[in-house]
Amino acid sequence: MEDLGVSFWRNRNVLVTGATGLLGSWLAEELAGRGARLTCLVRDWVPESRLLTGGILDRMNTVRGELEDLTVLVRALNEYEIDSVFHVGAQTIVGTAARSALSTFEANIRGTWNLLEACRSSKLVQRVLVASSDKAYGAHEKLPYTEDFALQGRAPYDVSKSCADLLCFSYFHTYDTPVAVTRCGNLYGGGDLNFNRLIPGTIRSALQNEPPIIRSDGTYVRDYFYVRDAVDAYLSLAERMPAAGIAGEAFNFGNEKPVSVMDVVGTILRLMGQASLQPRVLNEASHEIPRQYLDCSKARRLLEWSPRHGLEDGLRETIEWYRQRL
After folding, report:
1. Mean pLDDT confidence for 1-24
2. Distances 237 to 130, 132, 147, 252, 298 between C-alpha atoms, Å
3. What residue spans define the domains of the chain?
């Protein structure tokens, strides 16, 4: 019997924003493998992206442009008769957002309202998934986050995500735009070229036999979420839209197993046979929330979804990806 997830996407017209990034490249690859007619919005040409090195780009339409350009988005949706949208394009680095708040707000807030407005004007779009983050919640004393927690971002990146979420709900409740929001933990996996992030940076340091760098004091706690599980979560949600109780909602996705920065680094070094390397702890991180992790019971209940990879399984696959390419 054919997998229903495969048949659902065959010949379906899908737009992915941010396809050169970590999540976007894996999502595009999976959708192409399931037979979707794929279109991707690409701003920057990134030669080392999985989208190019994996030959994924050859299997899709490419629209060159920015989320900040509403005309480009309207044209793409109409010209390629898009009925499903995965909006994962954004400025995703907390440090970059702190250095350049305006460009982050332009990409993450204006880019989101432009996308929603383009989808509202289309008569073909049936589902829109917008990538948010656990950062949208901001800092809370009580954890784990559930989807009904207040959105109270403070630093520029966190605020950009809080705002984007509210825009999505505004378009749903005002215009019935079939949108849902995903709030994931810290994504990791092969193809992440932002080596200032903890996991790819630690793997590269270990491959070069150098001490890994920890920007914080090492005690920060996060929910680390493997990118292949994230792709599965996105598709599980999309396949149930625009049903009542699904559209207009936010969903947390993660492993629900919070881990400290120091423990993640230690696990990577152990798996790579480099346990003797001593991390350099800079204790310089700013604009970061000390403790963040998610409650994903809503996704388990309504989507029948749960992650397939534990942290060590996901790290082993990630390490092997970088070992082969670095």
Report:
1. 86
2. 11, 14, 15, 11, 11
3. 4-186+225-255
